[in-house]
Amino acid sequence: MGLLSRILRRVLIGIILAITLFPIYWMVITSVKPRVDFFKLPPDWIPKTLTSDHYHAVLASGMGGQLNFLNYFKNSVIVCGIVVILTLILAIPAGYAFSRFRFGGRRTLLNLVLVSQMLPIVMLLIPFYIAFRKLGLLNTYASVVFPYLVFTLPFSMWMLKGYFDTIPRALEEAAMIDGCGRVEAMRRVLLPNITPGLIATSIVAFIMAWDEFIIALTLLVSDNMRTLPPGIIMSFVGEFEIRWGDMMAASMIITIPVMLAFAFLHKHLVRGLTAGAVKG
């Protein structure tokens, strides 16, 4: 019975992996298929002919082509970098305060922070649009950075609170006895001990900003300011045609930063996501 259970478990894992990885596989082979093979029936599960034309069309967009892909990429990197930096700057002291200080309404406030994650994005689009238009910030990096912080900060605060909870107070108190202030003790003692948590938080905030579509589509109306998700849709999805090959090639390219982040930092990410669950 034990052997049969292990076999069934592995078969189930294999099926789940196949279902999960198939869209990625299809994206890869579509990006290297000739255009004439896209709608063949039955489809070619393994392409007989490979082409790099779609990648050339996408990458050449920044070198005199009609598309603006490289500019979209630059905008996404700038926006995501600012979001990650601001998220850490704001979430670290907030998470520390919730972890170390006891004050009235603390639990209620923590729950309200978590509830804010449940608000649908579309509920906030019109208020964001009106506010940034009146402030003259529409179609700027600020018009997407601040809305992204609304969604990255609550989750990051909860994550970092959990990481701070795992650090014994005795370490911080010992540093303060040696002459460190509270901020200095946090910087010298606590932050080095929650490095995996900081990396995990940064990755999560980066991915949330990197993949976001509807806010960027609504608040970045100029083509030169668009980030990758709305830029790709506006470039490759037309009224009469969808450029599947170019879209899949572009999707492969924008997936690379996330894949590299997981490849080099996955150990820290796993440690960070599990560290906060040790202690409430």
Write the layout of secondary structure elements.
Layout lengths: L1 H30 L21 H7 L9 H32 L5 H10 L5 H15 L6 H24 L3 H9 L4 H12 L1 H17 L2 H6 L8 H9 L7 H32 L5
Helix pairs in contact: 1-12, 2-12, 3-6, 3-9, 6-9, 7-8, 9-12, 11-12
Describe this structure in words.
- The protein is an all-alpha fold and 280 residues long.
- It folds into 2 domains: 1-51, no CATH class; 56-275, MetI-like fold, CATH 1.10.3720.10.
- The chain contains 12 helices and no strands.
- The chain has helices at 2-31, 53-59, 69-100, 106-115, 121-135, 142-165, 169-177, 182-193, 195-211, 214-219, 228-236, 244-275.
- Helix 3 packs parallel to helix 6 (142-165).
- It is globular and about 70 Å long.
- The model is unreliable at 276-280 (pLDDT under 50).
Helix/strand order, N-terminal first:
HHHHHHHHHHHH
Q: State the end-to-end CA separation.
A: 38 Å
Subunit organisation of the chains: single chain
Total DSSP helices: 12
CATH architectural label of the largest domain? Orthogonal Bundle
Helical content, roughly?
over 70%
- CATH homologous superfamily descriptor of the largest domain: MetI-like
Query: Mean pLDDT, as a whole number?
Result: 83
Structural class: mainly alpha
Major sheet details: none
> How large, in whole angstroms, is the Cα Rg?
23 Å
> What name does the CATH topology of the largest domain carry?
MetI-like fold
CATH class of the largest domain: Mainly Alpha
Q: How many strands? A: 0
Total number of domains:
2
Low-confidence stretches: 276-280
Coarse shape: globular
Strand content: under 5%
